[in-house]
Every structure is written in structure tokens, then in C-alpha cells.
Amino acid sequence: CCGLYIGFEEGQSHHVNYPFGLHQQYDLPWDYYSQRDKFFLQSHRCRRTLVPAGRACEPCGSILRNDVFVGILQRMGCGIHPNTPLIYMPIANLVETVRRKTDQCRSLKLTHLNLARKLLGKMTALDEHKQFVMAVASGRVERVAQLVQACLSNGVGIRGLVERYERACREVYNPKGFTEDDIMLGLLILRLGGARLAGIVHRAKGLPGISTLRQNTVIRPLRASAGMPT
Ligand SMILES: [Zn+2]
């Protein structure tokens, strides 16, 4: 007897489809060897007796009834569940598992990178909002509401808002957009104090300028009347 011959399906071979690792896990009662690319299992009880060609002795034949070997045959025929312990896997399945895990790692790294990039963007935006809150709290610009309204209507983001606030602090930027109260107060100053005073208040307090006031004039100019006063 030269052992139990194990045949493999087309495309398979004992080199990569027999789970050699199981011999470490279990004390299996057989040895394995290959000869001219043929694979044999030989029972520890085999006495190498004379048997008909292509047959195995009783101890070698009994390997077919061993529970562990029955499991090996089942996995060879039906495939191996991905969650099977690695020691049960032949080299072919181990290679496939490593490839799959490598792909998963790559995909996770990419997801991680994208999340980190998004997070960085959000943190930057948050910093800019905080910066704006601090700038407003500093009270260096009185007409913050008008500045924000002008920015919102022009689609300016938080970064632009902070920039415009800083410019307003340096008196380079003068926020447009006045409330009705501003216009009325400006007009009152223009009428009572004249253009010079209105100009001073415009520069000092950011109230509407003379040209803006004239565009918004609500008081009709006085006209001489030929009739008798009532
Ligand atoms: Zn034998």
C-alpha cells in the first residue's frame, strides 16, 4: 500500500488546496506526501502491505471516515466560509483572504482620508465663525448688522465676513445698507445742520452719506405759493 490517493478537481491542486495547517491543530493519524504531482495520505497504522494497484489498505482507507477528513472534503467541495478560522484554510483561501482584507484596508484608508479632509474643512469654518464672534464681541465696528446684511445679500461666506469686518475696523470698508432710522436721522441732521454736519456724521458714525440721503429724501422742498397762507 502506498497510501490513499487524493484527487483534486480541475484547477485545484494539493499544493494550495489541502489544509496542511490542520496537522498542527489536530493530532491527525496520517501523513501526507506527494509524488510526481500526485497526493497521498498514509495512515500511521499502514504496514505497506501488498494491495491491488490503485487500492489502499484498511487503515489508509479508514481515513475517509475520519471526522476531520470528512470536514476537509466538504470544504474542498463546497468552499470555505470567510469567517472560518485561518488554520482551517488551505493556501489558496488564505491568499484570497489576504487580498480581500488588503482591499478593505485600502477602502477604509480612503474613507478615513476623506473624513479627515471634511473634518478639517468643518474645523476651519468653525474657527472662522469663532473668529467672527470674537471680532463682533470686541465692538470695534458699530454697524455689524448692516455689514452682515450686505454680506448675506452678496452671497459672501464667513471668511469674507471676517475680512470685511477687519476692513471695516480699518475704516476702509463702509457697510452699505441702512435702516429707516439711519436714513431719518441722517436726513434730520442734513436738514437741521446742513451738508457739512451730515458729512461729518457720515464719516464719524457711519450714517448714510449725503448722496444716499438725497436719493432717499422724503421731505418735499418748500415752494413759494402765490396764495394767502391759511
Ligand atoms: Zn496503507
Write structural notes for this entry.
With 230 residues, this protein is mainly alpha-helical. Helices cover 55% and strands 7% of the residues. It folds into three domains: 4-89, no CATH class; 119-169, no CATH class; 180-215, no CATH class. The protein is rod-shaped. It starts with a strand and ends in a 15-residue tail after the last helix.
Low-confidence stretches: none
**How many domains would you count in the coordinates?**
3
Task: Briefly note the structural class of the backbone.
Answer: mainly alpha
In whole angstroms, the N-to-C terminal distance is 141 Å
Number of strands: 3
Order of helices and strands: EHHEEHHHHHHH
Count the DSSP helices: 9
Strand order of the largest sheet: 1-3-2
Shape: rod-shaped
Mean pLDDT: 85
What is the helical fraction, as a range of percent?
Answer: 40-55%
Rg, nearest Å: 45 Å
Defining traits:
3 domains; 9 helices; binds zinc ion
In short:
Helices cover 55% and strands 7% of the residues. The protein contains 9 helices and 3 strands. It is rod-shaped.
Write the layout of secondary structure elements.
Layout: E1 4-6, H1 14-17, H2 22-25, E2 30-35, E3 38-43, H3 58-61, H4 67-78, H5 91-138, H6 144-153, H7 158-169, H8 180-205, H9 210-215
Antiparallel strand pairs: 1-3, 2-3
Helix pairs in contact: 5-7, 6-7
